[in-house]
Amino acid sequence: DSVSAVLEGSAGELRAWRTALLESCVKWLIASLSGGQHDLDSARDQERQMLLRFRELLSSLNEVDPGDWQKFVKTGLKFRYQDHAFLKALHAAIQHLYLPENSVCAKLIQLPVVHMMLTQHSLFLPTLLKSEEEENPDNQVKEALVDLMSLVVKMCPSVCESSHFAVLLGAYGATLSVLDQKILLLLRAYEQNDLSLVNFRVLLWGPAAVEHHKTCRSLGKSLWQQPSVGDILRLLDRDRMMKTILHFPQKRKLLPPEDAEELIFRDRSTVDLDDLYDPCFLLHLFSELTRPEFVVDCRKFLDSNALGLTVAALSSYDPQMRAAAYYVLAAYYSQLEGARFREQSQLLYLLDVVRNGIRTQNMRLTFTLTLFIAKAASQILKPEDHMYLKINKFLLSHEYLNMSKVPGFYQFFYSSDLEQKTEREWLFEILRQGMRDRHCYELCARRGVFHIVLSFFNSPLCDDEAQNWILEILQNAARDAQSAYEILRDYSLLTWILHILESRFLETQLLSGIISLLHTLWVTNLGDKGVASEGPASCQPGSQEPQKLLALHLVNEFLYVLVALTRHLRPTLASAQLTSFFAALNSMLRYRATVMQAFKDMNRFTVNETVLSTRDVLVLLHKWSLLERDVKLQEDLRSAIEKYQVRELLKMLKDKNKPVVPGRARGPRGRKKRPGEAEESADPEAQAAALETCRGLLRSILTHWGPAVGAAPESTAPG
Length: 719
Prior knowledge:
Residues 657-687 are annotated as: Disordered. The chain is mainly α. The protein contains 35 helices and no strands. Mean pLDDT is 86; it is low at 536-544, 659-672, 675-681 and 711-719.
């Protein structure tokens, strides 16, 4: 405020002013919290602004009147228990006020009392626990409440009681959501304060834990009431378990490092972590379920994908996570030896083959291998499938699993069986889902997998679906920077894509896959160089550390391929692919201008400074007029094309004016819309927003073209 700005030079007066402000702020908040106008939007916004001001003042003063503080806490918890803004303000205030070196700390309401007011409040259980009958409370409120409890436990460990475990487990969902991760950290804090979960060894969580606790309280503890291993395994959702296997968080640590500032795991991938189980919790759980004193339903353990998730953990980058997975597998193997079910001998042999292939202690397996093992294990329960016999035959022909090969690649890919298409589809599924990191790329490159699939792409035996799978494999490999560069260098991938684009017509789904692949390759290879190019150029003559740039010939190759792709653009493309195309083309042109400027600054000789010809721009504008359905632009372009006789565009106009085949519009019997095609009726607003974004990118692209005055020769050049 203006008064504080004037008093910046006088520390004493500034502190007195802020103390008076804080006192007034607290009194205003107490009056507002106890009032009944919180339902009004204006009153709510004003109150939240004042809570932010309260946090700012408290962070600079670290003290408050004890009487006002007690009224603030009691009034706030009474009337704003489910307001996340108040809970966050209370969290920040406790952080500042209850420091050991703070002299005011002893005069304030004690932390055990604050904790009791939190946990014994009438809204504590309805806020924290999720009921199937009622709507799920706001996650922001639950997170703020768990944060507040964690802070009080950290600053005053004496508040921990074993009776809290039942409530915390009832609120826990065993997922990687931020809320569940915070609850797991809170449970770990309880254990670090000499409270063990040993009585909850066979852990239930979620609504099942709440129901079990209610039963124990009403009927008392008895042996038959203890949940069995089967009850626990039935809580696991098979589909979510499989999704967790396919998107296993390889960088998740089993135990959070003590010196880490951020304890919450976050992943940059597009998958929603809320839909994945937390392997840190499940591996601890499985280690308890497979103890010798329990009888495990080994078939149910396999059918629930618990075995698959344990195997997937062998691809983790965390040694402790892998060690926990190896421990669970060893314990499960002991249980399996004494089990009796039809597939027992096959499962034992699979685990033997895997164990014989592990040469070093706590060895990390490539994710592709762990996915193969997990899918092979689940295939044991499907004797009706064609792959059941093939996988068993493959396993019986090996004493150990070679960890430096893609298992069964040549046998399944070059199979002479009548069902060879099924085998190839199964193999493609392993490759596209199992391509997660550089190690997976190196495994496939070492065995010549990319040479084979790139050659197979142009084979008459490769149908549209297999072509899209190959593009997906390449795109997944291109997400790693080193792999993206090597796949361009070693396999001439841009030339391969250019050969595909020379086809007269590409299916929309295939075209979408090519655009996504090119966009991923460019973004990954560019990395942070694109961000650096936005700033001032540092490649001055005599510079000690010249700016690292992509090779100019590589940028030109990307541009050549994208310009060739322009003639395949069509309105049926989805808005995401159109945006990716224009964004990639704009980024390439801007980056090329940066490289050319850097070369000029270093006095290097360059040729072909002009990258977009007039013909390229006319083709681009023609395609844009079709995308935007701009009739006026189409007529203007037609006049210019006919005037200068641009052959390629004249041919495009002839193709465009061909009569439409009636068979395409036969109602239900017409061609079905493919997944890559746009669905304009689904969300016209999103389509319009995407076109507006593309329009801005197109304007930026056209700034890199300069018309050649009186240059008619280009118009007569062959297309």
